[in-house]
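Hey, I'm writing a tutorial for new members on how sequence and structure tokens pair up, and I'd like a real worked example in the thread rather than a made-up one. If someone can provide the structure for the chain below, I'll link this post from the tutorial.
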Amino acid sequence: MFQEAKCDFCGECLERCHYIDFDRKRGGEEIRKLAAGEKVDWLRECVTCMACDEYCPQGARPFDLILKRMEEMGGLSDPAILAQMAERFKPEGEPRPVPPKDRVMSICVMQGNMPWAIQGQIFESVPLLKGKHYFCNVLFAHMGNESIMRDRLQAMVDNLAKSGAKEIVFVHDDCYAVLTGVAPEYGVKIPFRPVHIFEHLRDYLKANKDKVRKLNMKVAYQRPCASRYSPEKDKFLDEVFDLIGVTRVKREFDGINALCCGIETAGPNLKLFSRGKNFEPFRVKNVEDAKKSGAEAMVYLCAMCFASLNKKVREAGMKNLMISDICRLALGESLPEDKPA
């Protein structure tokens, strides 16, 4: 939720935006207008990358305000498609029980998106929660809608809690983000400890050091938008890379300066946005930046990032690897034949 009492309308959040061309003064004026409920003509240019929340030096959460105004304005996404997506991810009945364990892992709906990335010993070490009962609905923020994510959050938490686990590992970055970075804003209590997949991988690799072989690779990391809600967990990624002998190249578009992958569709002919923003130049800059920085591969955490960038990355002569893929290679496993290149 937007913390207006913290906001000094400095404009830094919009000045640093990659996609909207405002200087600091204009940025402050435009956020002030949004806070006052005035209409602005630039909301359709927002790509919903959430970066402005991380840019804000006061922690005022300006993207939350932007998202609220987007929903009030309407029309960012086709209403029929929004309704279709809301129905697609609506759970029915009760979640399937899992064996009682202190730590379990939620893979959300990622097994349906990329089954090849949810395989191997890492995923065999804990019981798996999978399916729409555990879907976080952050997707709808990218469609200019806050209500679906907010209204379904408590049910998601309740379904997760039914596992009885003290700790739940989240493979889907959005799920972790909504629990650690969004739920507290809505007053939703979390009765278990959310564990990011990076932390779990770090723990697993440390516990299985005798199996790990150093890869001696240089990689670029494609940071998902939802990581803006939980940037503190990036330290675990660096530990993972160190454990498997991987160097995360220093490049312009990494960390707080990361670019959105520019995803525009969520499946065949299903456009997420009804706006005309051209993402292509940003995708090109992102991949070129990774290549010139010496990366041999782009490493992903998000299925949508993989889908959006993998062709360009491959054409640039780099490999495409999910974070689970690269850890499996370090553990001596072979990647499935059905994994996209």
